[in-house]
Amino acid sequence: MNGEKRTLWSGRFSEAAAESTLAFTSSLTVDRRLARYDVLGSMAHARMLGRQGIISSEDSETIQQGLREIMAMIEEDRLPVQERLEDIHSNIEFLLTDMIGEAGARLHTARSRNDQVVTDLRMFMRDATLDTMEALRSLQRAIMDRASDSLDIILPGFTHVQHAQPVTVGHWLMAHFFRLQRDSERLMDSYRRVNISPLGSAALAGTTYRIDRLYTSSLLGFEAPCPNSIDGVSDRDFVAEYLFAAALIAVHLSSLCEELVYWSSSEFGFLVMADAYSTGSSIMPQKKNPDVAELVRGRTGAAIGDLVNVLSTMKGLPTAYNRDLQEDKPAVFSTYDRLVPCLNMAAAMVATMVFNKERMLAACREGFLNATDLADYLAMRGLPFRRAHEVVGAAVRHAIELGKRLEELELDELRGFCDLIEEDVYSVLPMERCVARRTSIGGTSPEVTPMQLSQAMSVLRRQGDFIDRERSRTEKAFRSLMEQGPSQG
Length: 489
Prior knowledge:
By secondary structure, the protein is mainly α. Helix content is 60%, strand content 4%. A two-stranded antiparallel sheet has the order 1-2. Strands 3-4 form a two-stranded parallel sheet. A hairpin with a 2-residue loop joins strand 1 (154-159) and strand 2 (162-168). The protein is elongated, with a radius of gyration of 30 Å.
């Protein structure tokens, strides 16, 4: 049959599908990036078929050799693709049959495109999850490195975008580290749910052939076969789970970039972005715009949209495979393709930005950030905290009327609000002392923040070990699959 007219399902039909139908149902523009995984899945399936005696060992070896040649084409970016074929899976199967003849037509024995496609997608998702974790880890490393160098830089802490209490830059950065750590843990936990093989589920009911699903699962580096064939072909929870984790990462990146954008403005002047990660204006020569941070912030919405897209598709489907599931891959690919570069750019921005220590400390002296410390001082001297809160509020109001800071009020003025205040109050009110005295676990004091850094180093090592172990496991399985001949059973 002419390759321009072929489909995998044409036998049932007396006439060809309309050109508009072929164009409308085609996923080739999206799923061609699964080509490598499709070859690997087919290699494992062909080897199992030969080992089980379902096809001859000669046909199995011929198929595998043909697939190795196709893999070489993929790696050298010379795979011939027929645009009129509906997906990459059809392209590879027809190409294989053209190359090796009738043996190629035996490859699809005991397999459906339903289990074939989702197996390919799961292999892609394993790599995507590890790639995302690796990019996250790079950003976390950059944050941790900058935090360790910034334990003595004091800046205003904000709530409601209002001055609240002084903190250190190191403490602020570690807040972002631990947000991202939860993201990494979500991905690590989801990986075991991705790493399940649906191959052998066939269309939905399993197969009458004496296949060995444990064997193909092992060949492809999966943890185990899925336990139910209907769920095996229809499950896209692992897609939604990745998209949720990615959307939350994007939200966390947006929050970080929001602060970088504001803090690099003239009004704040807390930091300067490196020229390499800034752009200028086409009309205003003086401008230095934080466009990289703004674009990272702006791409958050698309990640959320991809998640909602997939969840909306999933919620209306009965069990087993439905063609709607073809739409899972555009969402996954677009989120992955945006998120990893965003993480890498954020890491570069964090690593190269310069903090304005003097400007930050000067800002701390505005807004009465030491008011809570004065209330704590009074509470430690026996005044109930709620009463101390009221006393300090009155002192702040008085200072505002005079245009002074709390530490600029005379002792007699302060004692006018509460006679428990003594001369030693002036050792409590400096910003450096406000920061240093917050020694509770997780606090901002430079004395205890190193505990957070130590914990961060441990989790980064654990993440690195996980990524290295899983990459090594799948790469070893794939090398073995591509290099060896079929096992005989």
